[in-house]
Design a protein that fits this description.
The structure holds two protein chains of two kinds. Chain A has two domains: 31 residues, no CATH class; 226 residues, MetI-like fold, CATH 1.10.3720.10. Chain A has 15 helices and no strands. By secondary structure, chain A is an all-alpha fold. Chain B has two domains: 71 residues, no CATH class; 211 residues, MetI-like fold (Orthogonal Bundle). Chain B contains twelve helices and no strands. By secondary structure, chain B is mainly α. The chains are: A mainly alpha, B mainly alpha. At the A-B interface, helix 1, helix 2, helix 5, helix 6 and helix 7 of A face helix 1, helix 3, helix 4, helix 5 and helix 6 of B.
């Protein structure tokens, strides 16, 4: 039994228990109420002190409209916004679609594919900033590993990755995909395994095999998971710092920054924390609708509290 | 005799028709393996290289040696000073985050899932929203607030940030898993006169063990693999973590790259070991409904 299968064996009874929840619960009275409050106090305290307060303070830092005028007049900021949009749009969608296809590759039962999956998941476990440093060194000079490989295979010099803005940005995106593809592949493998086998058997009887099976059975059943995962990845990638910070470090000449690196740079290198906060805040018009849609979808999908 | 022959021929035919597909799948697997391992191989290649300050352009280590690891072990470079103290700080950060997340998350999920307190739903909603928040966007105000709390430059400020970001996931996962445990157990314990604390301690925690492991590993790896908050909150030598050391190397003009990759390998070993040992729990945690790298 593979680990994912076991995970799903683990997960299955949840679906059943949700419908038949026992009616009994603590009838909270007197001391029980006090207990419940006491149990919740640590989390509520952490939330107020380290999440709510920073959120409110951050909103206050970025409330002054003149900050946004200042940002818009900075050509670096405009570049940063474009870079962020490219990074998120390409990075997330290629990762998600690739993960969907790869989950189909890995779901086939064979021993070597299972061993390959174990290796393939290693980037997920590795600390991001460590491997991004390694990727940076692969690319940073013409003597890095990638250029050396290109030279060894083709006999010609490879590109200077950190000299062209578009190649440096593409490197960031590829590094992002490298890091996150395994994780989402795993999620989609779990999603595919949750599809009951008898649906496929029924489709088989109706003559749906191969391509038809994919389009008419797998894709519709994975659509909800795919959407939730894409939204989640979009939100997290909007705030991604370490990929760009380490892989291109903004090179060449700070033309490949994204919002997170730009904001941190403004706040702590140039010493304009309010401008930095405003830069990150400028993602809110995109962020808030996605977060609202996401929490609704997640709740609808059954992760209920 | 003839039927056996046809069967064999059919099998042979089917095999030869599937063969191109199998070869394609195998080739794709090899490409995937190279793609996955190339940055890892680069770490090893640079770490084994004797040239400290420039790349040789070789794709094999010319004269592989463990000098960089020996230097790291003995801390004999100004950038490597107190390395093991900082490694200890990273471990402290990871373990404190793990323990606090498991403790706070399990208490909250017990209250949310097993005791009906009016209005507690909103806490679950807040946890869900915190869970989907991109944490980097909170970094700037967070640093200011740590100044207010007087925690700046203390490892506790980083621990606080990681616990705050890990507990929502912990609550989600534990809540889902908790639904597998029959409420009748709590009921009968209560009839026998157990207080909610005793139910939590004697019934809930032991039965939740697999989920607690998943959540603990998640929190540990979150703190271990996170960079931005350590970079911003920890400044002094004394409370610095390995992430800060990596940053010093990264921003130093004449950084010996082989030392840096030696650090990278040493720092990657614990999460890799955890991954191979506890993969099942990690995957189980994911499949339980929450998703977060």
């Amino acid at each position: 039994m593979s680990s994912t299968q076991q995970a799903l064996a683990f997960g299955q009874p949840i679906a059943q228990s949700r419908s038949s929840r026992p009616p009994w619960r603590y009838s909270l009275q007197g001391s029980d109420t006090a207990w419940a409050i006491a149990f919740l106090i640590p989390y509520v305290a952490v939330f107020l002190a380290f999440v709510a307060y920073p959120v409110v303070f951050g909103l206050w830092m970025g409330h002054d409209p003149t900050l946004y005028g200042l940002l818009m007049s900075d050509p670096r900021y405009v570049d940063t916004v474009i870079n962020t949009l490219l990074f998120v749009a390409i990075g997330v969608n290629v990762t998600m679609f690739g993960a969907l296809l790869l989950s189909g590759y890995f779901i086939r039962r064979s021993r070597w594919r299972r061993s390959l999956l174990v290796v393939f998941l290693i980037p997920w476990a590795l600390p991001g900033f460590v491997v991004f440093t390694s990727i940076h060194f692969m690319l940073v000079t013409q003597w890095g590993l990638l250029d050396s490989l290109i030279r060894a295979i083709t006999g010609e010099d490879g590109p200077l990755f950190m000299v062209s803005t578009s190649i440096a940005m593409a490197s960031n995106i590829v590094a992002y995909i490298w890091k996150w593809l395994p994780f989402w592949t795993l999620i989609f493998i779990a999603g595919r395994m949750a599809i009951p086998q008898d649906i496929y058997e029924a489709a088989d009887i109706d003559g749906a095999t191969g391509y038809k099976r994919l389009v008419h059975v797998t894709v519709p059943l994975l659509a909800s998971v795919y959407l939730i995962c894409t939204l989640l990845a979009t939100v997290w990638t909007l705030g991604d710092f370490s990929t760009v910070y380490f892989v291109s470090s903004g090179a060449p000449a700070r033309t490949t920054d994204v919002l997170a690196t730009y904001g941190v740079d403004e706040a702590f290198v140039f010493g304009y924390p309010y401008l930095g906060a405003a830069a990150m805040m400028s993602a809110l018009p995109v962020l808030i609708p996605i977060v609202l849609l996401l929490t609704r979808r997640v709740r609808a999908a059954g992760v209920q509290l | 005799m003839s039927t056996a022959l046809t069967a064999r021929r059919v099998r042979h035919l089917r095999f030869s028709r599937m063969l191109p597909g199998k070869i394609a799948a195998a080739l794709f697997g090899i490409l995937l393996l190279i793609w996955t391992l190339l940055p890892v191989y680069n770490m090893v290649l640079v770490a084994l290289d004797e040239e400290a300050d420039e790349f040789t352009g070789a794709i094999w280590p010319g004269d592989p040696n463990l000098d960089s690891f020996a230097s790291l072990w003995n801390e004999d470079n100004f950038l490597l000073e107190h390395f093991w103290h900082r490694f200890g700080n990273s471990i402290e950060l990871g373990l404190a985050t793990m323990l606090l997340t498991v403790a706070i998350g399990s208490l909250a999920s017990f209250a949310l899932g097993r005791m009906r307190l009016r209005g507690s739903r909103i806490i679950g909603d807040l946890a869900l929203i915190t869970y989907v928040l991109p944490t980097a966007f909170l970094a700037i105000p967070f640093v200011h607030i740590m100044h207010v709390y007087g925690l700046i430059d203390s490892l506790w400020s980083v621990i606080a940030s990681q616990v705050a970001f890990a507990t929502p996931y912990a609550i989600l996962i534990l809540h889902q898993y908790g639904k597998l445990i029959p409420l009748e157990l709590d009921e009968s314990a209560k009839v026998d006169g157990a207080t909610p604390w005793q139910v939590y301690r004697r019934i809930y925690l032991p039965l939740m063990a697999p989920a607690l492991v998943a959540v603990g590993v998640y929190a540990l790896l979150l703190a271990w693999n996170e960079y931005l908050y350590q970079y911003l909150l920890v400044l002094s030598m004394d409370s610095a973590t390995v992430a800060v050391v990596i940053n010093q190397f990264f921003n130093s003009d004449e950084a010996p790259w082989n030392y840096m990759m030696a650090i990278a390998i040493v720092y990657s070993l614990p999460p890799i070991a955890i991954y191979f040992a506890l993969r099942r729990f990690m995957v189980a945690g994911l499949a339980l409904g929450g998703v977060k790298g």
